[in-house]
Amino acid sequence: MAELTGLADDRALLGRTSTAERVADILRSRIAEGYFPPGTRLSEDSIGGALGVSRNTLREAFRLLTHERLLVHELNRGVFVRVLTIEDVEDIYRMRHLVECAVVRALGEPPFALDAVVEAVEQGGRAARAGDWKGVSTANIHFHRALVALAGSARTDEVMRSVFAELRLAFHVVDDPRRLHEPYLVRNRTILRSLRDGDAGEAERLLAEYLDDSRRGLVEAYGQRVAAEG
Asked: Which residue has the higher pLDDT, 195 or 179?
């Protein structure tokens, strides 16, 4: 499987400090990047072999990610990437609104350290020009992670890393990723422009509107898909 071939490339990241936390980091990133879509059963033998870790280490990593709501364990069936409900999506956006808007509101005096934000915007533009809408989705998540990182808080980064990985689970069930993600390329640039101008208040206002519109669009698309499959 292609995703396992890619996962084997991550084996070098473990080095001599192979731990369940490091394995969980790798799997979390792979889930967030879309290598393991919602509903995917995770094989202990295949993943453990690809990463070169013991069954016990892998099970502990699965336990950590289950606690983060990225995986679910089904009795006598195994471990699966979680499929979100509409209520999950609503709750994720409540969390995003609380954290992201608060970070921008508390930025202090400009200029702000925007290099990572700029890179995420440029990454999204490159992916769009290539017609890579999965890449646009990834760039968009990088944009919001870069915004959160402006707080300079490792704890906030860690919490939101799991939130964004969980959000990506919802993106995977949308039939038309271009329609979902393309409008936010321009909106990301607009927020960046406000931050470059030192206007955090305007950036926060734009971000709040952005998140509200994104939530409505995703809930609508997600609801249609779930209804069709039901």
From this structure: 195
